[in-house]
UniProtKB/TrEMBL annotation:
The keyword Zinc-finger does not apply. It holds the Pfam family HTH_18. It comes from Paenibacillus antri. The chain crosses the membrane at residues 12-32, 264-283. PROSITE patterns: HTH_ARAC_FAMILY_1, HTH_ARAC_FAMILY_2. Residues 638-737 form the HTH araC/xylS-type domain. PANTHER family: ARAC-FAMILY TRANSCRIPTIONAL REGULATOR, HTH-TYPE TRANSCRIPTIONAL ACTIVATOR RHAS. Keywords: DNA-binding, Membrane, Transcription, Transcription regulation, Transmembrane, Transmembrane helix. One of its GO terms (molecular function) is DNA-binding transcription factor activity. SUPFAM superfamilies: Homeodomain-like. This is Helix-turn-helix domain-containing protein. It comes from the Bacteria. Gene3D superfamilies: Homeodomain-like.
Length: 741
């Protein structure tokens, strides 16, 4: 057969391929020009970033120098809080300091100090009223509280009427710093100095740089000379000043030509792209005809199936794919149903054997077992039942998918450990927390016991839970499988007493049970003895509780028997507690009794039951003791608080002092005081003393030392420290602010 279809496809698409390859060369040259343009923009962006950084550093240097001078020179504090207009010495020192500061900052035109209290302005040479200043409108805005940015925009400035206006940028500080109210500190920076610095940085005549303030107004930089400026290539805004720096090429002819060339290539590319689409459509329609005829034939044979596809029948490949997929899906579904049916039949057969619901015909039984992949061999067999310990508690945090995975792991590990040949062990899950297995007796009993030890140990080491297994007696035929199963379930009932994470053989339990059955009347007597001791708060109640649990453990009772015993324990204890006062009964019904009933529902092992019940009873006992103590100490605590409020001025007043006076342990008193009043004793006493001290400082003319003595602080340092901790500042500052207000 000649590859005519192959040759037709090759010679149909080769011309299109050559056209697209040619266009790729054009795209390559276009990308080169575009890369040049991007490089120019990137270089401009780097230059703009350096300019912005230089301007910020220069302005921040001025800002930092001025702030350090304001904070470290006390002469400014004297000036702003001094109202003597004729203090020549002060004015001379301020003038000298301003000249030193100006010499450190060569860009600064002048520094003005504005004092609001007497409305004066001082520039280091002349002091005169604000109303006569040429800068009075700007200062007036500062005084009226108009919010000014730290660095203002470009503005006209002159200090004397005969001077010409100069363009400056002003750095404004309220005084005191960050608070204001006393005046202002205005630093005027020459715009020409910044512009010269900008020219020194750029240097090149091919680049323009323009600086605009936060409102978009031009501050300084290159002007647009006759429209020769090109487009802005990069623009950056300073986080410090809010100024924006725009930059670009003065003559943007090269970039414009590159952009125009890029547009031309784009038009050419679109044309070639359209030509390629038309060619592909034409070639595809011509080569589609044989495929169309094939689809028509398939549609004729599969007419009934494709009718259900509706409008999608127009998609021929969809018809082919959907038809094949439907047949594959049907095949997989049938296979899955067969597997699930076989698994359900196997589990059902397993359950019938364990529950004795199936007639045993040896021949048919062997055929059924072999069909499920099992090799029973001889007639000696035994059954075990294993359950996951504390299933509800452990598995409630896992999703259904994770639970299934754990069960699959346990199932697989059990088959591997219990027999070297998996066909000699039959294991199935019989409930959410239990799985059972039939062991074909081809190995000694000692080896089987060792296998159970290995199973329990492996689960404990590798999974986040444990299992406990019960093993029935070995039987001589399939008719007795149900008896072995019942024995295994019965052995598992003794897990509560014997413990979890182990295996329990029915033979061992049967031997002990026949010689150690015990009498329930003795357990009831122990319950009565404990309940009465607990109600009377006898110190021996814990020993009696331990004796009850030890006795039940020694009797080897089943889980059902233990549940009956626990419920009677709770019933009789509840009967005794109801004889206590009403408030104790409410506490018992509200918390302790529900906790005991919940613990009974969770009965897994007797040791854990003992721990849960002991914790609940200890907690209830602690609450009842607290109730008794609260009743006896409430009145005493009120008396102690009244005493402290009346004798707070006693410098010897302390917890030890109160302990001796009221005959109560100091640490216990501190605990009761905090619990009753919600505040530490020391904090309460300190707050009371400081409140009285505040009243005395405002209403009396006593000295600080005298006030401290009167409120119980003979040591002045201790008084100041305590006062500042509560109020936030010293007694002297408190009195000063109080007098000024």
């Amino acid at each position: 057969m000649k590859n005519s279809w192959f040759h037709r496809m090759i010679w149909s698409y080769i011309p299109i391929f050559l056209i697209l390859c040619s266009f790729i060369f054009f795209i390559f040259f276009n990308m080169l020009s575009e890369q040049q343009r991007k490089n120019a923009i990137s270089a401009n962006r780097v230059s703009t970033s350096q300019i912005l950084q230089t301007v910020d550093v220069s302005l921040k240097s001025i800002d930092t120098t001025v702030v350090n001078d304001l904070m470290n020179e006390p002469i400014y504090l004297e000036f702003f809080y001094q109202t003597d207009l004729h203090d020549v010495a002060l004015h001379y020192r301020v003038s000298k300091q301003l000249k030193l500061l100006t010499q450190q900052l060569p860009m600064v035109e002048s520094i003005d100090l504005v004092r609001f209290e007497d409305e004066l302005i001082f520039n280091g040479n002349l002091i005169h009223p604000i109303r006569k200043s040429e800068d009075r409108e700007f200062i007036g805005a500062l005084k009226e509280g108009v919010r000014l940015t730290k660095w203002t925009g470009l503005r006209k400035y002159k200090h004397y009427p005969f001077q010409e206006d100069k363009e400056v940028l002003s750095l404004v500080y309220p005084y005191p710093l960050n608070i204001g109210g006393q005046g202002g500190f205005i630093v005027n920076v020459r715009a020409s100095a910044l512009e010269r610095m900008l020219e020194d940085i750029t240097g090149s005549t091919n680049v323009f740089v323009t600086v605009r303030d936060a409102e978009g107004k031009r501050l300084f930089g290159s002007a647009d000379d006759g429209g020769q400026r090109g487009p802005v290539m990069s623009s950056m805004t300073s986080r410090y000043t809010g100024w924006t720096i725009d930059s670009g090429m003065v003559d943007g002819t090269i970039l414009q030509a590159t952009s125009l060339l890029s547009d031309v290539w784009m038009v050419v590319g679109l044309f070639v792209f359209g030509l390629g689409i038309v060619s592909i459509v034409y070639v595809t329609r011509r080569n589609y005809r044989p495929l169309k005829e094939l689809i028509a034939k398939i549609d004729t044979y599969l007419h009934k199936e494709t009718e259900s596809l509706g409008d999608m029948r127009s998609d021929e490949f969809f018809v082919l794919q959907s038809t094949i997929d439907r047949y594959i899906a049907k095949s997989e579904h049938i296979e899955k149903q067969i597997e699930e049916t076989a698994e359900l039949k196997k589990k059902s057969f397993f359950g019938e054997l364990l529950n004795g619901c199936r007639d045993i015909d040896p021949d048919r039984l062997h055929q059924e077992l072999e069909k499920h992949g099992l090799n029973p061999g001889g007639e000696r067999l035994s059954v075990f039942v294993a359950e996951i310990d504390r299933y509800d508690e452990v598995f409630q945090k896992y999703k259904e998918r994770d639970r299934y995975l754990f069960k699959f792991i346990v199932h697989s590990v059990t088959r591997e450990i219990m027999g070297t040949d998996p066909s000699r062990v039959w294991v199935e899950w019989i409930s959410e927390d239990r799985f059972a297995g039939i062991l074909f007796a081809d190995r000694p009993d000692a080896d089987r016991r060792e296998a159970f030890d290995r199973l329990c140990r492996w689960v404990n080491d590798n999974l986040k839970f444990t299992v406990t297994a019960g093993l029935g007696l070995e039987k001589s035929g399939w008719a007795e499988v149900a008896h072995s199963y019942k024995e295994a379930v019965q052995a598992l009932q003794y897990k509560a007493v014997l413990g979890s994470d182990r295996w329990i053989a029915y033979a061992d339990v049967l031997e002990r049970r026949t010689t150690d059955r015990g009498d329930s009347l003795e357990a009831v007597a122990l319950i009565h003895d404990f309940a009465e001791s607990y109600r009377l708060d006898d110190p021996e109640w814990e020993n009696k509780l331990s004796l009850f649990f030890a006795d039940a453990r020694s009797r080897l009772r089943t889980k059902d028997d233990l549940l009956i015993l626990v419920h009677y324990f709770i019933y009789y204890l509840d009967l005794q507690i109801t004889q206590l006062p009403k408030e104790y009964g409410q506490l018992w019904k509200g918390k302790a009794l529900p906790g005991l009933l919940d613990a009974a529902k969770r009965l897994d092992t007797w040791a854990r039951m003992e721990a849960d019940l002991t914790d609940i009873l200890h907690d209830f006992r602690a609450h009842t003791l607290r109730l008794r103590e609260e009743k006896s100490h409430c009145a005493l605590l009120k008396e102690i608080r009244t005493y402290v409020e009346e004798h707070y001025a006693n410098p010897d007043l302390s917890l030890d002092y109160l302990s001796d006076r009221f005959e109560i342990n100091s640490k216990y008193l501190s605990h009761l005081f905090k619990e009753q009043f919600g505040e530490n004793f020391i904090d309460f006493l300190t707050r009371k003393r400081v409140e009285e001290a505040k009243r005395m400082l405002l209403e009396a003319s006593h000295s600080i030392q005298e006030v401290g003595d009167k409120v119980g602080y003979p040591n002045a340092t201790t008084f100041r420290r305590a006062f500042k901790k509560v109020v936030g500042f010293s007694p002297v500052d408190f009195r000063r602010h109080g007098e000024s207000s």
